[in-house]
Amino acid sequence: REYTRLLSRLRWESRRSVLAAARAQIAAERHRAERDRLAHAVNTDPLTGLSNRRPFDAWLNERTLTGSPPTALLLTDVDDFKVINDTYGHDVGDRVLRRFGELLLGCVRPGDLAVRHGGDEFAVVLQGEHLTEEAAVRRAEQFRLAVAAEPWSALSADLGVTATIGVAIASTSSRD
User: Fold this and answer.
1) Among 80, 120, 158, 176, the one annotated catalytic
2) What is the pLDDT of residues 43-64, one digit of tens each?
3) Which burial class, exposed, middle or buried, applies to 55 when counting CB atoms under 10 A from its CB (0-12, 13-18, 19+)?
4) Residue 143 in 3-state DSSP?
């Protein structure tokens, strides 16, 4: 009888240990998921779903501290966005920004960084060993044409949207 009680107690202690380990693992997974959710929320623009300024600032600080491959920075904004907001309303303005962000995201490659810098200003960081000034300008022009070709009047009658894009190139070579 004593042996049976001891065996029973050991089985329950073993089960409790397994249960405690499972609970700890579930708690750790919940904690990791919450941390990931918060990190995403902190680094993502809620309107467009693009990265916000924080990842851009982090990239900029990293760029100044370490050597990196040739890089192009495309800065773009919605032309006359205040007029769009004033004429068509802030709801349409928000939809324009969302669609602008979607178009921008459609023009970047994996590894590029597309950012809503603030308001109607956006940035794209292009990097790569074989990046050239011509390639960066070509990508900017592709985006400008995508914005021009978008059927903006579907958001509101007579709505037209254009973009201005600036391109800056940096490389680690001695000639630049």
Assistant:
1) 120
2) 999 999 999 999 888 888 876 5
3) middle
4) helix
